[in-house]
Specification:
The structure holds 2 protein chains of 2 kinds. Chain A is mostly helical. Helices cover 77% and strands 0% of the residues of chain A. Chain A has 11 helices and no strands. The N and C termini of chain A lie far apart (45 Å). Chain B contains 9 helices and 21 strands. The mean pLDDT of chain B is 90. The chains are: A mainly alpha, B alpha+beta.
């Protein structure tokens, strides 16, 4: 038990003395997740809205595909993106391998189905009285669609937060695409994996505490938003 | 001669194989207030959705001010607004809810004043309520905010689907006051569905009845449903839960329903002596309301589990000192019941 206790003490020191290596991993993680969530929200919210709002042939099948992609293993995404952006891959010229944008792009593929699926569910779950209400107040087609999205805003935010939670806690993509390069692409999760492997628990615990804190904050936001959607 | 507000011809709408709405003809004039009554599932709400241009009919035409009109006409939809039984409020403040329709129309010049006016009409103090969020309102307040969202638009037609079904007496009174004011000031026509017969009577000029998707002439009256039992005197008898009974001349079947015109019932304060009428039923007054554009009062008397509407003149009501809660006797002949 002693080494856990010592690890906790050293973790506190690393965090309070603003240890450069620890904070480098934290900042890299924030950069990666900010880019990936921005990309997936910009692409995913409109697609999820279209999927939830309109009725078209093949909608159920498309929904099934999106829902299946929710369970996409991170290492599979990492592997596929690696195949494309490695020097021998068709997109090798982009030089995205072992870069922060490279990790972010791969994470977009991972969390995009979450944003699309939960946004579609949010739109489908809108109150049945909304459409007749808006029509009877004189809304045209575009106004009807925009107000519907606005009414689902809390549930769409939940989609974003859930996706962010997945991005911040994943390790497979960051490891394969980022390569866990110190000061450069080392994220909190890859750093924890490496430091634990080396038997250096203190930095692992320090990063684990920060990670837990962020996840706790995200969960708190989710609880608050869920209350709003009722 | 100017075109009526609505002229409906050959209107049909189906829900699968189970329900058909069929309205061959219906005319509603400008400024008219039409009430629609009838049992649940009879097609009242379906008809309202069609008249509010929310849904399109399967067949037939709705002429709105002489022009064939459907949901695709934004102009028509902006002339007609509908209030649902349990209204949906946008997840915004009260002010944003009420101003929403004006925003859609780009009529924001005097929007604040109009919102304040509409809120005042429905009995909600603007300073107190305008900034409240949608989830900070009671059911009655929410319904009144929804009504204010319609009133602010100064619509040509207001379609109201059971507007008082989920609100308290006070709210229902305020809703009545507000829609009457809109009618008076903006000549708003009303199409109202309600099960609250007494409330409806104070709001509308005319009534139609909707049953199984068909509009039928409204016969003012109380509906007494079967089953009945046949007595030795060859009369039909309906036993009430308190031991009293309603007697009627023989009907077509023991399961039939009969209509009892409120004008054929009299109210007495004591059991009448030497009364030829076979039905002398003890009850209690539950409600009283002014019957619009007449000199009559409608008195709702509860006899066991049955609610009887009785029409009396204003003079009689004063003379008999009728008030809610008073014990009275409802008297009517066995031949007053008309079988349907």
């Amino acid at each position: 038990m002693d080494y856990i206790w010592q690890g906790l003490q050293q973790a506190a020191i690393l965090l309070f003395t603003l240890d450069a290596e620890t904070y480098s991993a934290i900042i890299t993680t924030i950069k990666v997740t900010f880019l990936s969530i921005t990309g997936s929200v910009i692409i995913g919210v409109p697609l999820g809205f279209l999927l939830g709002y309109f009725h078209f042939p093949g909608k159920r099948q498309l929904r099934m595909v999106v829902d299946t992609l929710l369970a996409l293993p991170t290492v599979v995404v990492g592997l596929l993106v690696y195949a494309f952006i490695s020097q021998r891959g068709p997109l090798g010229w982009t030089n995205l391998l072992y870069t922060v944008p490279g990790i972010a792009i791969a994470e977009v593929f991972l969390i995009l189905p979450i944003v699309i699926s939960l946004t579609a569910t949010a739109i489908e779950g809108l109150d049945r009285r909304l459409r007749p209400t808006l029509r009877s107040l004189g809304a045209g087609r575009v106004q009807l669609a925009l107000t519907s999205l606005h009414e689902a805003r809390f549930a769409v935010l939940i989609a974003g937060i859930t996706a962010y939670g997945r991005a911040i806690s994943e390790v497979g993509i960051a490891m394969i695409i980022g390569g866990n390069i110190k000061w450069h692409t080392r994220t909190m999760t890859t750093a924890i994996t490496l430091e634990t492997g080396k038997g250096q628990f203190s930095m692992g615990i320090a990063l684990g505490v920060v990670l837990l804190l962020l996840v706790f904050l995200l969960n708190g936001a989710l609880v608050l938003l869920r209350r709003r959607t009722r | 001669m100017s075109e009526p507000l609505y002229r409906v011809e050959g209107l049909r709408y189906s829900y699968g194989k189970h329900f058909d709405l069929d309205v061959p003809k219906l005319v509603i004039q400008h400024g008219e207030s039409l009430g629609i009554v009838g049992p649940n599932g009879g097609g009242k709400s379906t008809l309202l959705n069609l008249l509010a241009f929310i849904d399109a009919p399967d067949a037939g035409t709705i002429f709105f001010e002489g022009v064939p009109t459907g949901p695709e006409s934004l102009e028509a939809r902006r002339s007609v607004t509908m209030l649902l039984q349990i209204s949906y409020l946008l997840k915004r403040t009260v002010f944003e809810n009420v101003v929403y329709g004006l925003r859609l129309r780009g009529e924001m010049r005097d929007a604040s004043e109009r919102v304040r006016e509409a809120l005042t009409w429905v009995g909600l103090a603007p300073d107190k309520f305008a900034r409240r969020m949608w989830h900070q309102l009671s059911g009655g307040e929410a319904q009144r905010v929804a009504l204010a969202s319609r009133l602010v638009l100064r619509p040509k037609v207001m379609v109201l689907d059971e507007p008082t079904a989920s609100v308290d007496r006070q709210s229902s009174y305020l809703i009545k006051e507000a829609i009457e004011r809109s009618r008076r000031i903006f000549n708003t026509s009303l199409i109202v569905v309600s099960h609250d017969y007494l409330w409806l009577n104070t709001v509308v000029d005319s009534l139609v009845r909707m049953e199984e998707g068909r509009l039928v002439e409204y016969v003012a009256g109380n509906v007494i449903h079967g089953p009945w039992e046949e007595t030795r005197e060859r009369l039909f008898e309906k036993r009430l839960s308190d031991g009293q009974a309603i007697l009627s001349a023989r009907g077509t079947s023991l399961e039939s329903s009969a209509i009892l015109d409120p004008s054929t019932i009299t109210i007495a304060l004591e059991p009448p002596q030497n009364e030829s009428a076979l039905n002398v039923l003890k009850g209690r007054i539950l409600n009283m309301s002014d019957e619009m554009s007449t000199e009559n009062i409608l008195v709702e008397v509860v006899v066991a589990q049955i609610h009887l509407n009785v029409r009396v003149t204003r003079n009689s009501a004063v003379k008999l000192q009728l008030v809610p809660g008073k014990e009275v006797w409802a008297v009517f002949k066995a031949t007053s019941l008309q079988w349907v």
